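Per your request, structure below.
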């Protein structure tokens, strides 16, 4: 049996006492010393893992002041505080063994937008894309760009002085910071903006922390001005992290430039006033192809002559990874190199305010490209993306590239440690060739891309950090790269900040490093703010070193290989944070979006499962054996120990497994993570494996049995007297109450009054029988299709199924209906894995017998249909025959559709896609557009996130509120503001959620097409 996990690294008593005092002082945010929260915030996107003592989530700036004011008192000078935003740092910037202060959950309001004057005031937890979304109606945007724009916070951007694509035109974050509100360690809230000499003098004269800071920073500048000018490279990416070169800006003293890039080592930024830039009216992007990466790099320098707004280079490894990702469907149209192999590309962007200017710029470039096409070292072709929407598609692919670099097969995975070097752009090609030689010498795999206009290279060599020998390469390679960047007058940290790499601060800052220490001391005299990074306050206190900080690999190494493999669908999460996507209209992780709790995200769940396996491995528990044992268990015999353990749980007995279970319980099993995570982390899969083992020790909730068995009992309930009994009972308030409070289920759907069999008979349709189908002629078989039923549509939405059948028949197909068989997906979702495997094997045989007839199998509900190709294949040894989504099937029969087109009236509608389908079968969404276009219809895809129902999630009592709140995030406004006849939906869950929360009925696309028939 699964053992209880309770011997954990506890929060130090000093921190608990400090947190008690914080609470007493009136702190209103969340204080979380729980092991799950600490585990989830123990990582960022780096190779490091450091367990904090606790996590606090301030509700407002006053909470931060309470934390700092107390920490600065004599009693608590050993307390360490590290600010955290989106946690997307690649070098351990926000990791600490002290207290994580997460500013992202509550301090995320856009406070003011002044479009006339071109600025916005925001709290520091606002996500960059969130801000730009709000600014779009004003034609403005916050210009500094970064790949993580959908999850990185303004506070994080300021503190890493973030920049990325377009930096040559728009500069870095620092260039757009007008004013900052920073909570200093003293508890003071300091408002900083460029100040004149008189104000500086006045402030410097003060004896308080603010006075000391101003006096110190100015003194450093006055004494070392010449050295600073000589030392700081004249690069686009400068040398932030106490940017001494910009203490004075246009003659004014500007403390903001010291705070920008300071990585939380000087104070907590709580508010910022930011400069805004006009969105260029027009944009176009020329995607230039090369047969070698070196050629693309070298040519980029000449392309700069066309004065584009930015140029980015990508190599074939990264392109290969993009090809395997969902993102490729949106950009493949821009990669037609007429069959030639593309080993590198240059993405060259132009922006302009008039068509004429844009066209002039494009033709300047393309004329030159055409002259050179096919010459040695020159392009082999190009494609043009026009308009913001198309341009954005290519930038989205480029943005995803860093994440994709983490998605390789095998145990050696691309890892960040030398991933953002910057050299003068003219040195970049030579630098990269030498960099490649370093990596090739170690026989490492890697992919590369970069901002060639700014001289920045992104590369992640593939290492298995569970292997101690490979971990040693981190030091060896870094040292070699440090020497290489110095040779080329560059920087080790061109974009992603320093973090643990602060070890090299003294190397790069040279004899200016002591001045950094002076500044650190003025802000943080006892080294309490994110210590060990950028600079320490005293010589004798060392900076962190790249190979002396706890790594993930070190901990992962202790997980038993069998368990690692069994839970492989979650083990490779690299923390890049794509699952923290802010956009409510994006399908990615509804459970995180609605809770804003990182434990309720794919990354959170993957982190917890890894820690759970590590703790079990420490106890020599074999999880594969635990799972096998479940198969042979006699339920009644094991009821008593499980009941006993559950009783103890009720009495408050701690078990880390409960924290893991709680995180898993919030998951909708929507599979958006599986499709959209660059690493393809598949939460529903490892969640099911966890639940199976967890419920070997504890009693399952009743609802699990109800949901798991529903598919099996529903055919019986659908028979006449039972149907009436079931539907009547489900409509009675006392029954509803019992179901809600005892069984944990709400709003159970009613079985439809139509008798499916009778309706089939009425239409003279038959159930698919292999013998009958074998007897069909070739032409009859050719126009036949077998409809694979699912419990939800067949029994609860019978008219939808019948309409789909009618529509297919109208389109010229002969429909056969596969006799109903439970699909088993609910069993998988709830971790009844042995039963699921049994059902899957049984169904595989049935499906195979029908598939052998040569007739296509087609499912109706996307999530049930996709389970044949996603879940079944993991549990059935034999090949599972394809079961197509209905649109995939129709897309294969375009001639038949064309022949029927004249029978359809024209129309225009919108489709609200199902999450699983959108994220796991992206081509299928395009199929709908094409099918509708062929039948005289305009189909627009409405951008919506998850509807909040996701199978039975929304029917579980504990999820009812979250389900509705998820619906409110994106679906509510769309459904409310448009007539329901205009909206179509493919998912059973989505339709039933709309019916439940809006009392509106959305049609399936084929129901709509049926109505369009003349
Ligand atoms: C896949 C990937 C791609 C990336 N691409 C880019 C890129 O193109 N350009 C780029 O610049 N970076 C990039 N990064 C790095 C990272 O996203 C940026 O550094 C980003 O600015 C961090 O923001 P965050 O909110 O996640 O901050 P966090 O990682 O949470 O914190 C970063 C640092 O800021 C400090 N901090 C955070 N909030 C505050 C606050 N309110 N007050 C004081 N200190 C604070 C933290 O202590 C920490 O030192 C990438 C990272 C990943 C994983
Ligand atoms: S689950 Fe995927 S998207 Fe989320 S942090 Fe992990 S690897 Fe990134
Ligand atoms: S399945 Fe959906 S809810 Fe669950 S972790 Fe993945 S994205 Fe989040």
């Amino acid at each position: 049996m699964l053992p209880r996990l309770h011997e954990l690294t506890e929060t130090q008593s000093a921190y608990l006492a400090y947190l008690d005092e914080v609470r007493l002082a009136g702190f209103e945010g969340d204080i979380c010393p729980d092991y799950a929260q600490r585990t989830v915030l123990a990582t960022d996107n780096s190779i490091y893992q450091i367990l904090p003592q606790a996590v606090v989530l301030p509700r407002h700036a006053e909470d931060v002041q309470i934390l700092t004011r107390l920490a600065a008192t004599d009693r608590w000078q050993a307390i360490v505080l590290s600010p955290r935003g989106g946690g997307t740092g690649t070098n351990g910037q926000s990791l600490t063994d002290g207290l994580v202060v997460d500013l992202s959950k509550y301090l995320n309001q856009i406070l003011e937008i002044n479009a006339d004057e071109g600025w916005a005031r925001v709290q520091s937890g606002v996500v960059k894309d969130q801000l730009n979304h709000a600014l779009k109606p004003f034609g403005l945007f916050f210009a500094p760009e970064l790949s993580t724009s959908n999850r990185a916070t303004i506070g994080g951007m300021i503190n890493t002085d973030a920049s990325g694509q377009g930096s040559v035109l728009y500069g870095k974050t620092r260039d757009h910071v007008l004013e900052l509100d920073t909570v200093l360690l003293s508890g003071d809230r300091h408002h900083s903006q460029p100040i004149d000499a008189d104000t500086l003098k006045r402030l410097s004269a003060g004896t308080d922390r603010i006075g000391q800071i101003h006096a110190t920073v100015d003194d450093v500048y006055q004494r070392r001005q010449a050295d600073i000018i000589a030392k700081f490279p004249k690069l686009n990416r400068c040398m932030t992290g106490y940017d001494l070169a910009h203490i004075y800006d246009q003659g004014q003293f500007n403390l903001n430039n010291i705070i920008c890039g300071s990585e939380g080592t000087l104070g907590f930024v709580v508010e910022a006033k930011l400069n805004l830039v006009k969105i260029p009216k027009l944009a176009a992007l020329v995607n230039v192809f090369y047969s070698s990466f070196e050629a693309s790099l070298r040519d980029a320098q000449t392309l700069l002559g066309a004065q584009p707004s930015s140029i980015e280079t990508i190599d074939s490894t990264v392109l290969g990874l993009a090809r395997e990702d969902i993102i490729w469907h949106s950009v493949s149209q821009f990669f037609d190199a007429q069959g030639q192999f593309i080993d590198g590309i240059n993405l060259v962007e132009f922006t302009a305010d008039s068509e004429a200017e844009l066209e002039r710029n494009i033709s300047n470039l393309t004329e030159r490209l055409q002259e050179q096409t096919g010459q040695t070292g020159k392009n082999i072709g190009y494609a043009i993306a026009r308009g913001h929407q198309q341009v954005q598609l290519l930038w989205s692919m480029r943005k995803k590239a860093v994440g994709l670099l983490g998605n390789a097969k095998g145990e050696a995975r691309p890892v960040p440690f030398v991933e953002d070097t910057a050299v003068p752009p003219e040195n970049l090609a030579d630098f990269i060739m030498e960099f490649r030689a370093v990596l090739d010498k170690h026989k490492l795999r890697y992919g590369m891309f970069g901002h060639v206009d700014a001289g920045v290279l992104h590369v992640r060599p593939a290492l298995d950090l569970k292997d101690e020998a490979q971990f040693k390469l981190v030091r060896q390679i870094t040292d070699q790269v440090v020497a290489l960047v110095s040779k080329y007058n560059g920087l080790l940290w061109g974009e992603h900040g320093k973090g643990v790499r602060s070890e090299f601060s003294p190397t790069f800052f040279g004899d200016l490093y002591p001045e950094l220490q002076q500044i650190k001391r003025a802000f943080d005299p006892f080294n309490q703010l994110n210590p060990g990074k950028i600079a320490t306050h005293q010589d004798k206190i060392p900076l962190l070193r790249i190979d002396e900080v706890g790594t993930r690999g070190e901990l992962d190494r202790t997980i038993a290989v069998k368990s690692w493999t069994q839970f492989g669908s979650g083990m490779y999460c690299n923390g890049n944070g794509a699952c923290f996507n802010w956009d409510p209209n994006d399908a990615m992780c509804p459970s995180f979006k609605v809770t804003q709790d990182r434990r309720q995200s794919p990354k959170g769940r993957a982190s917890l499962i890894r820690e759970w396996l590590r703790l079990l491995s420490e106890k020599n528990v074999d999880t594969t054996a635990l799972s096998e044992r479940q198969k042979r268990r006699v339920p009644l015999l094991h009821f008593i120990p499980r009941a006993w353990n559950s009783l103890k749980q009720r009495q408050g007995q701690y078990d880390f497994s409960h924290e893991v279970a709680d995180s898993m319980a919030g998951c909708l099993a929507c599979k958006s993570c599986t499709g959209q995570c660059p690493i393809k982390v598949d939460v529903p899969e490892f969640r099911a494996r966890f639940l199976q083992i967890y419920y070997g020790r504890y009693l399952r909730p009743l609802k699990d049995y109800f949901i798991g068995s529903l598919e099996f009992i529903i055919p019986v309930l659908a028979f006449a007297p039972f149907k009436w009994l079931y539907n009547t009972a489900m409509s009675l308030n006392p029954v509803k109450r019992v179901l809600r409070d005892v069984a944990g289920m709400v709003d159970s759907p009613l079985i439809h009054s139509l008798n499916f069999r009778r309706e089939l008979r009425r239409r003279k349709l038959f159930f698919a029988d292999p013998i009958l189908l074998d007897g069909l002629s070739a032409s009859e078989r050719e126009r036949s299709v077998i409809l694979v039923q699912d419990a939800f549509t067949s029994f609860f939405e019978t008219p939808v199924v019948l309409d789909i059948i009618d529509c297919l028949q109208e389109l010229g197909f002969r429909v056969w209906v596969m006799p109903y068989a439970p699909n088993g997906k609910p069993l998988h979702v709830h971790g009844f894995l042995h039963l699921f495997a049994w059902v899957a094997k049984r169904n595989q045989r049935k499906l195979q017998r029908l598939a052998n007839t040569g007739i296509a199998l087609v499912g109706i509900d996307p999530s049930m249909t996709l389970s044949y190709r996603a879940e079944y294949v993991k549990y059935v040894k034999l090949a599972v025959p394809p079961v197509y989504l209905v649109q995939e099937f129709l897309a294969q029969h375009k001639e038949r559709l064309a022949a029927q087109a004249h029978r359809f009236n024209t129309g225009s509608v919108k489709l609200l896609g199902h999450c699983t389908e959108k994220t796991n079968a992206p081509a299928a969404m395009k199929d709908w557009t094409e099918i509708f276009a062929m039948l005289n219809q305009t189909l627009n895809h409405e951008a919506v996130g998850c509807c909040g129902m996701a199978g039975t999630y929304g029917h579980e009592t504990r999820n009812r509120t979250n389900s509705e709140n998820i619906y409110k995030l994106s679906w509510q406004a769309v459904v409310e503001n448009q007539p329901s006849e205009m909206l179509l939906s493919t998912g059973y869950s989505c339709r039933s959620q709309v019916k439940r929360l809006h009392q509106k009925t959305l049609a399936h696309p084929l129901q709509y097409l049926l109505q369009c028939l003349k």
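The mean pLDDT is 94.

Regards,
D.
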